[in-house]
Design brief:
2 domains; Rossmann fold; 15 strands; 10 helices; 29% helix; 363 residues; four-stranded parallel beta sheet; alpha/beta
Length: 363
């Protein structure tokens, strides 16, 4: 074999080895600045790491850029914190799954225990960012800042929003005042609490709102201002733990509609659902046929939560339906997707319906 071929194979082997251990923190600056906080960036993919064929193309592919490229694209962020990155996954967030969730949560908790880590930034696709943020808000055991960010436009787009979102997320994670606020989401100059935000537009840059409780704060070109603390229990004060957890129970969301029967309710349970969330009409209501089917499953021990398909508003207990009689749980201020996340975590332990209702009121 020629010397050139030997060298080529050695280089290929080195590249493969580097890729295999990419989960480990990678120092991105030759020297750390002792006057700056240390922030770890955990990348999961999404539009912020996406690429299209042209800068004006609507379509694109998520998860094309690695964490090194994301950080290198915003050198200004290194003036806010010492950054190092880890690649947790590189997928579009429509493909977010339990395996990545558990991997991400365990890594966040590991990093939070390290004395030389002051904050954590997570890059994520916007499709399911509110669910991942809320999941981490329930299971991350730390008061240190954990900040998710993403973008509505891919990295290759004209006027891409990712770089400034990333810069502002680093600014929040590096800010001492962010401690104790639970998991935060920073997008388009706004700071949201994980329990309050929701996506409201399919394509608009200003898609995320916190309609019930409002913003936690704002961040403009790195200048951070907090208005309030997030609602509900979270992170270091949460009663939930992933210790020894390798799988999450199945919970399905079913949307209520005109002429709804109980077929999908029964099918979900037959498929293995341990809990059901109904995205009800109005104030969490549904047809009599669906109520009867849901109540029958509740009597069998399936936890049934009434939420609403309406964008804004609370679903209070015993308002539209007699939850006490039927054995249902009211979602309170949680939308269907947040209700599903909370119910899955609650079902990691055997609980009464009354205890699960307490959880929905407190978190």
């Amino acid at each position: 074999m020629s010397p050139r071929r030997v060298v080529s194979r050695l280089l290929l082997a080195c590249i493969t080895l580097i890729a295999a251990v990419s989960i480990r923190p990678i120092a991105l600056t030759a020297q750390t600045n002792k006057d700056l906080p240390n922030v770890v960036v955990l990348a999961t993919g999404g539009t912020i790491a996406g690429a299209g064929a042209t800068d004006t193309q609507v379509g694109y592919t998520s998860g094309q850029l690695g964490v090194d490229q994301l950080i290198a694209a915003v050198p200004q962020a290194k003036k806010l914190a010492n950054l190092r990155g880890e690649q947790i996954s590189n997928i579009g967030s429509q493909d977010m799954n339990d395996e990545v969730w558990l991997k991400l949560a365990h890594r966040v908790n590991e990093l939070a225990q390290m004395a030389d880590v002051e904050g954590i930034v997570i890059t994520h696709g916007t499709d399911t960012i509110e669910e991942t943020a809320y999941f981490l808000n329930l299971v991350a055991k730390t008061a240190k800042p954990v900040v998710l960010t993403g973008s509505m436009r891919p990295a290759t787009a004209l006027s891409a929003d990712g770089p400034l979102n990333f810069y502002n997320a680093v600014a929040v994670a590096a800010n001492q005042d962010a401690a104790g606020h639970g998991v935060l989401v920073v997008l388009n100059d706004w700071i949201h609490g994980a329990a309050s935000l929701t996506k409201t537009s399919t394509t608009a840059v200003q898609t995320f709102m916190s309609p019930l409780s409002g913003l936690v704060g704002t961040v403009a070109y790195g200048k951070v201002e907090f208005n309030r603390h997030p609602i509900g229990k979270h992170t270091s004060e949460s009663e939930f733990s992933l210790q020894g957890v390798t799988a999450l129970p199945r919970v399905d969301i079913i949307m209520a509609h005109e002429n709804m029967d109980g077929a999908l309710i029964d099918a979900a349970v037959a498929a293995g659902a341990k809990g059901l969330v109904i995205a009800g009409v109005g104030n969490g209501n549904l047809t009599k046929a669906a109520v009867d089917a849901l109540a029958a499953q509740a009597k069998k021990g399936i936890v049934c939560v009434r939420a609403s398909r309406v964008t804004v508003g609370r679903v209070e207990r015993n308002v539209e339906l007699d939850d006490d009689k039927l054995g249902f749980v009211a979602s309170m201020d949680k939308n269907p997707q947040k209700s599903r996340v909370l119910l899955r975590i609650a079902l990691l332990q055997q609980r009464s319906v009354e205890d699960i209702q307490r959880i929905f009121s407190e978190y």
